[in-house]
Amino acid sequence: MSKLLNCLNNKDFSCVPVWFMRQAGRYLPEFRHIRLQNPNFLKLCFNSSLATEITLQPMQRFNLDAAIVFSDILVIPHALGQQIEFANKEGPRSLNFNIGKFLETKEKDFLTTLKPVYDTIKNTKNLLKKEKSLIAFIGAPWTLIIYLYNLKSQNKISGKITIKNKEEIKLIFKKLDEFLKLHILHQKKAGAEIVQIFDSWAGLIEEDCLEEYCFIPNKSLVDFCRDQKIPSICFPKGLKDKYKKFIEKVNPTAINIDQNIDPKWAKKELGTVCIQGGMNPQILLENEKKALEETEKYLETFKNNPYIFNLGHGILPNTNPEIIKKIVDKVNLIKR
Ligand code: 1CP
Hints:
By secondary structure, the chain is α/β, with parallel strands linked by helices. The protein is 49% helix and 12% strand. The strands form 2 sheets. Strands 1-4-5-6-7-8-9 form a 7-stranded parallel beta sheet, with helices on both faces. The chain has a two-stranded antiparallel ribbon with strand order 2-3. The protein binds coproporphyrinogen I (1CP).
């Protein structure tokens, strides 16, 4: 069994598996090279041959334990009939949200649009060494809704987001729950072994709505993964001390902590599940010595826990790939 699956399934902490969010991305010159020739980002996600190549790029450079399929959380709104634009500086935007089209999308059409993603998974699985794992992912419903309604700008006022059209949102949550499960199932059938659920904007939910918009939807997806016998890693970014409630209510196989979580607190309060990540990606931009010291701090804190080395968010585009190599090599020296 791969190191990562052994950690997730058996809570074995004799080794520390390592992979990175956004390990395939703009910090790699070989990715930038392909990206320059492919200005349409969504089209690139649906080009299985290039997506496979990009998925494998970091595996060729570093001794990582897992590949994460090159795709995006926004392929889901796209497959549900929405127009998504990846504007260069601002990040993705939804144009003219059409709820009718969204709710009426049929399973067959959804799966036809997403077939290239499943092909990428199949191709990658065939090319990946046996001891490496293949991670699939989805965006949690709340985080997808943030993009559907372009809500990110709203939080500049209060720091949180108030949902006004509650009845409409309920229908959207229900459709997403159903179709995200379908996407998990087909990614698994194609060969994915683990699912990471990104709730990157969970920190923008008002406290009295956490149950409805975060815990219940994530739990439904985690339970589905458990029924399918596939480990789940949740990333409810920005929840602060509510990470503890999240674990109690959702109970995923593993939890990815963000850089605002004190690792000592996490070990004490969240240690009932495997812990992943935490280190601030910003530190990788500073100096090598500091980055390696910080790596050591996380390894030391979690030495008696099942721990997967990763960051508190994705690798930043101006990170030097050399520092990633040094961190991976350091983590791989660990034998407990
Ligand atoms: O070249 C470019 O401009 C593309 C940058 C890029 C990349 C490399 C985007 C646009 N998406 C991706 C790939 C991607 N997205 C992966 C591939 C696998 C890997 O990690 O190596 C994954 C897992 C995602 C997931 C994703 N997309 C999330 C969840 C994780 C997170 O970062 O919080 C989110 C929120 C997105 C939306 C998205 N897509 C792209 C950008 C720039 C963003 C975020 C923008 C924002 O801040 O709102």
